[in-house]
Amino acid sequence: MTIAIDGPAGSGKSTVARRVAALLGFLYLDSGAMYRAVALKALERGRALEDESQLEALARETRIELKAPTAEQESAGLKNRVLLDGREVTEEIRTAEVAQAASRLATIARVREVLVAEQQRAGQCGGVVMEGRDIGTVVFPNAGLKIFLEASPEVRAQRRWKEHQEKGESLTLLEVLQEVRERDKRDRERKVSPLVRAKDAVLVDNTAMGIEETARLIVFLANERVPSVR
Ligand code: CDP
Ligand code: CDP
């Protein structure tokens, strides 16, 4: 079984998907980390974020590995380790600057094709929880369970702001809210694979729900679809 979780920034996708994967013994895959890793490489190389053929070539020549975090990284709140061409970029890809660059890069159809093919390869054996923006609509349209995870923009920004605070970053709550709103707008309005709820996705609004409660609801829904899932 494949579980697809899509939704806007800060809705809890990574945290919840990771917990669902742990409860079911599934593999957890964060597709957003792939867009972020290619964006970081483009920024480091000074590539214009509009140059479609250059960015497609960059995506093709990039090796991204998603790994389980070390115990130390896990206790620091990291959900997965990301290696970019063999170099650890786990923390570097989590800045607001990289998030913005990732969302601009993600509007390019040819870049998406490269990353979607990799995501499909990574999830081809099932037993996977993958999260992102287009998992239920494009990457795994036949997923056994699709979740569209929502939360109010204010709560999502508050959650993200808290993470920045914990890392000692000085962004204000308003700046984070603006970053999240800007990215949501771009992700929802782009022509290729916009962020939309798949017709058959279950809408879960976790504005007033905790991580564990949300994860257990999703496991319950997975069990309903496939009773032997666990
Ligand atoms: O992946 P996404 O951007 O959708 O969100 P996330 O990185 O999983 O979650 C953002 C922050 O919200 C994390 O620090 C989570 O611990 C927190 N969160 C929460 O407090 N309550 C929830 N129900 C879900 C997430
Ligand atoms: O964690 P957060 O929800 O803030 O972002 P993310 O999941 O790491 O994704 C970063 C950016 O990559 C998003 O704003 C999207 O523009 C893009 N993305 C996408 O287009 N398709 C995906 N399947 C995953 C991410």
Strand percent estimate: 5-15%
Shape label: globular
Could you spell the SSE succession in H and E letters? EHEHHEHEEHHEHEHHEH
Rg for CA atoms: 17 Å
Ligand inventory reads: cytidine-5'-diphosphate
Poorly predicted residue ranges: none
Structural class: alpha/beta
The total of beta strands comes to 8
The biggest beta sheet, please?
5 strands, parallel
* Range of helix content: 40-55%
First and last CA, distance: 11 Å
Strand order of the largest sheet: 2-6-1-7-8
Number of helices: 10
- Whole-number average pLDDT? 94
Structure notes:
The protein is of the alpha/beta class and 230 residues long. It is built from ten helices and eight strands. The protein has helices at residues 13-24, 31-44, 52-60, 71-75, 96-105, 109-122, 135-139, 153-166, 173-189, 211-225; strands at residues 2-6, 27-30, 64-67, 81-84, 87-88, 128-132, 145-150, 202-205. The strands form two sheets. Strands 2-6-1-7-8 form a five-stranded parallel sheet. Strands 3-4-5 form a three-stranded antiparallel sheet, with helices on one face. Helix 1 (13-24) packs across helix 10, helix 3 runs parallel beside helix 6 (109-122) and helix 8 crosses helix 9. The radius of gyration is 17 Å and the shape is globular. It starts with a strand and ends in a 5-residue tail after the last helix.
